[in-house]
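Lab notes, practical 5.
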Amino acid sequence: FVLRSDTMGVIFLLLAGVTFFSLISPRGALTEGWIQNLQRGFGVGVWLTPLLFGIIGFWLLLRQVASHRAPALPRIIGLGIAFVVFETLAHILANSADPELLAEQGGGGGRLGFGLSTLLLDGVGAAGAFIILVALGSSGLAMLSGAARLRAALASLRGEPLSAAEQAGAEPLL
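Output from the prediction step:
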């Protein structure tokens, strides 16, 4: 049994819709369990999961349509990196006396944020964690924006004019 990427895209889009409507409307037993598990896993990031599921689903579908050019994989990876940095920062900035309990209650960055913040803070301390998160966040945002936009931003910072080819090569974000 093999799932094609367009089938997976539809599944992710359905998950995005179910998650979104479960977050904003009264829940039944099934959707309540789904949201509780997402909250334990991602904390405040649960509100971003419909967007992430939707983007991944849309990307998987576009890869199969010949008339559309899907966003490059590095952009999707950049989005993932930015989300992970957000989750880690959400847990650190929650500044809870019991970060593990906070994660179990679906606060901060959930289990993901708790695990990564604990790993960073115990491993390299607060200053090291800050440096790593800034570096990862910057890398994720650079990947998300695309190489052409990054080159254009760097050229602009240096005061260099863009060539017509560089201006024409700017890609849409997603």
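Observations recorded by the TA: The two ends are 31 Å apart (CA to CA). The mean pLDDT is 86.
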